[in-house]
Design a protein that fits this description.
Elements lengths: L1 E8 L5 H7 L6 H9 L4 E8 L3 E8 L2 H16 L3 H5 L3 E4 L1 H11 L11 H15 L5 H20 L9 H13 L6 E5 L3 H12 L4 E6 L2 H9 L7 E4 L3 H6 L3 E4 L10 H7 L6 E5 L16 E4 L1 H68 L5 H28 L3 H14 L16 E3 L4 E3 L2
Helix pairs in contact: 5-7, 5-13, 6-7, 7-13, 8-9, 8-13, 13-14, 13-15
């Protein structure tokens, strides 16, 4: 059985291509059923997010299955195979296994270490099980991927530390103020950076947030994206009044001139009234002369960049630690996948030996005659079963736990030949390495 991953992500395709291949949740069942209807695909799971569409498959023939899944994606997206091949990646066996583990751990995310992807992989796993796409092989793959992702989260610092300016501003505010829920927050601006500020502030516990913007409609549109919070919206003409009633102010506008300076801020603040300003705009929205006010602190982009760079380096180191955990888990999965051969051979051997035992026991019972009591028959039945179990036990344990995969493979082949076992593995050529060249990568099996 082969494992393949076919898909695209923010690394290989622009958003206009990703949009066409996205599969909404209500269509996942239909998509899995379609994939599993192809003759060479046995199992299928779909991971569809805003940044990626990845299809994981357990297949009989990798070459044929790649053609089948490419046909499916072309059919779904209405893009030609040629258009798709410019953006698709195809991974086989340990490359596919490692990729899913890296994705679940946040190593392949747009923002390295982000935690949302783990929940998305869990959901893809759940949907795959629910819609009968995930069976033995992919079940084990997703289980181990989620396990290693949790290890990465708990044993490394991959998710710690902001690595965007907006996140760094909120992180610094939390360091300075501790409990953000106790403070009044104002955000000047209603663009993308302001949206990220709201998102990070809410995640850190802030609840009293005001949005100030030149267009009240734009501010209200931003507020509507966070229906779980009650954000207040104000026009820029009310800016100084709102700031006067705030403890923390974040500025993020496209203004080419400072919106706040010492004279304006000094006029609205009471005696010894503290205020903390985070200016994430370039050009700056906050004039440098505000620093002259004793109870006002100002942090600009340069201050925040230092936080971001420090966290980037921390996550890079954590990613190296995470990769070591993933490599171990990939090897563990590889051993498990190969052990399936041994499990089938063990089952066939046990069935054959049991069949011989029953035949010989029946002959012995006939020779002993009807006078031989039932109690004695049960004793002999138990005796022969015990002998078989004891003879098979040690070889079976050794075969099942053999770490040397080549030695295990040779042992399996030897058993099949010596006992003339009729298994699906008897006629299967077990090659050590198979190389498939796709339009995007050269990929190698385990």
């Amino acid at each position: 059985m082969n494992i393949i991953a076919v898909g695209l992500s923010h690394k290989t395709a622009p958003v206009e291509i990703r949009e066409k291949l996205s599969i909404p949740e209500e269509k996942i069942e239909q998509a899995i059923a379609r994939l599993c209807s192809y003759p060479h695909i046995q199992e299928a799971a779909i991971l569809s997010t805003c940044n990626r569409l990845e299809i994981y498959l357990a297949v009989l023939s990798a070459e044929q299955a790649i053609l089948e899944v490419t046909h499916f994606l072309s059919e779904h997206s209405k893009l030609s195979t040629q258009e798709l091949n410019a953006h698709l990646f195809t991974l086989l066996q340990q490359d596919a296994v490692m990729h899913l583990m890296q994705v679940a751990s946040g190593l392949d995310s747009l923002v390295m270490g982000e935690g949302q992807i783990l929940a998305q992989v869990k959901h893809a796993y759940k949907l795959g099980q629910q819609h009968n796409g995930i069976k033995q092989i992919l079940n084990q793959l997703f289980k181990q991927s989620l396990t290693v992702a949790k290890k990465v989260r708990t044993e490394t610092s991959i998710g710690i530390g902001a690595i965007s300016i907006s996140a760094a501003a909120v992180e610094l505010a939390q360091v300075k103020m501790k409990d953000l829920s106790a403070y009044r927050v104002a955000i000047v601006g209603a663009g993308k950076m302001s949206r990220l500020l709201v998102q990070h502030l809410l995640s850190k516990g802030a609840r009293r947030i005001s949005i100030i913007n030149r267009s009240i409609e734009r501010a209200q549109e931003l507020a509507s994206q966070f229906s779980e919070a009650q954000l207040q919206c104000y026009l820029i003409s009310n800016m100084m009044t709102v700031i006067a009633a705030s403890d923390l102010v974040f500025t993020s506008t496209a203004s080419t001139e400072p919106l706040l300076d010492r004279a304006k801020v000094e006029m609205i603040l009471g005696p010894n009234q503290p205020l903390m300003l985070f200016d994430i705009s370039v050009p700056r929205n906050v004039h440098a002369d505000i620093n002259e006010l004793a109870h006002v602190q100002v942090f600009n982009v340069d201050d925040l960049k230092a936080v971001v760079m420090q966290n980037h380096e921390s996550r890079r180191q954590a990613a190296m630690e995470a990769q070591k955990l993933i490599v171990k888990e990939v090897e563990a999965f590889r051993v498990w996948l190969r052990s399936l051969e041994a499990v089938s051979t063990i089952s066939c051997l046990r069935e054959k030996v049991e069949s011989i035992r029953e035949q010989e026991l029946e002959k012995a019972m006939l020779r002993l005659g009807s006078e031989f009591g039932k109690k004695h028959q049960e004793v002999i039945e138990a005796l022969t079963k015990g002998i078989v179990n004891k003879i098979l036990h040690e070889p079976m344990v050794q075969l099942r736990t053999q770490k040397d995969l080549e030695a295990q493979r040779l042992a399996v082949c030897t058993l099949q030949m010596l006992f003339n076992l009729d298994t699906e593995f008897q006629n299967r050529s077990i090659s050590k390495t198979t190389t498939i060249v796709t339009t995007t990568k050269t990929i190698t099996t385990i």
